[in-house]
Amino acid sequence: MDDHPLFVRGLELLLPITTDGRAEVVGSTGDAAAAAALISHCRPDLALVDLHMPPPGGIRAVAAIRRTTPRVRVVAMSGSADPAPALAALRAGAEGFLPKTSEPEALLPPLLAILDGWAVLPAPLLHAILRPTHAASVDLDGEERRLLRAIASGRNTVDIAEELHVSERTVKRMTAALLRKLRVSNRAEAAAVAGQTGLLGE
Fold first, then answer.
1. Which of 24, 63, 141, 188 could disulfide-pair with 128, CB 3.0 to 4.6 Å?
2. Is residue 157 within 8 Å of residue 168, measured between CB atoms?
């Protein structure tokens, strides 16, 4: 599930060659809303989902695939260094995460490991998941919950400002205040809080 045709085409060409025919692309779409239906039709062993597809977005696609075809292994990908979307995808049901590189060959070893039943996560993401977040003691108002949900969905400052109808400067101020209230130090840890408090499923 990726809205970058060149990346998909690279996987289509390289997977059969580099895996001796063990892996191949059986279907693709750049439409997050169509992801679950495609997976139900193709029944692959593994689904790769780009978290930054246009709305409804990769995280919702992960959740939809998990609901409709729970036996398919779902692996989230992102070209962003921000771990918050990856955490949100894991909370939504992804079983692994891979950084999206410019060279598809770099994805092949971890993909094969995932097909063999391993979970693959970058070390910084694992640390963010394991770090305590003190979620139980936090009481958020409606605006703070909207902001936290937006952060956990991987939206950037500009997108959040448009959604909340405020300036980018206000979003930065609100985010800093929210991180202090949650007693976390970055957006990735805030996304973990969102998952623990059930915001990602709303």
1. 188
2. yes
Strand partners, 101: none
Task: Phi first, then psi: give them for residue 34, nearest 5 degrees.
Answer: -95, 0
Instruction: Yes or no: say if 106 and 147 are a contact pair by the CB < 8 Å rule.
Output: no
- Do residues 27 and 41 touch, judged by C-beta distance below 8 A? yes
Rounded CA separation 182/180 (Å):
5
Peptide bond into 124 cis (omega under 30): no
How many Cβ atoms from other residues are within 10 Å of residue 19's Cβ? 14
pLDDT digits 0-9 by tens, 54-104: 888 899 999 999 999 998 999 998 887 777 788 888 888 888 898 876 566
178 vs 167: CA distance, rounded Å? 16
- Cα–Cα separations (whole angstroms), residue 118 to 25, 30, 40: 20, 27, 23
Q: What residues pair up with 73 in beta bridges, in sequence order?
A: 46
> Which pTM does this prediction carry?
0.62
d(CA 21, CA 15): 7
pLDDT in tens, 140-197: 888 888 898 888 877 888 989 998 999 999 999 999 999 888 877 778 778 777 766 6
**Residues 151, 84 contacting (CB under 8 angstroms):** yes
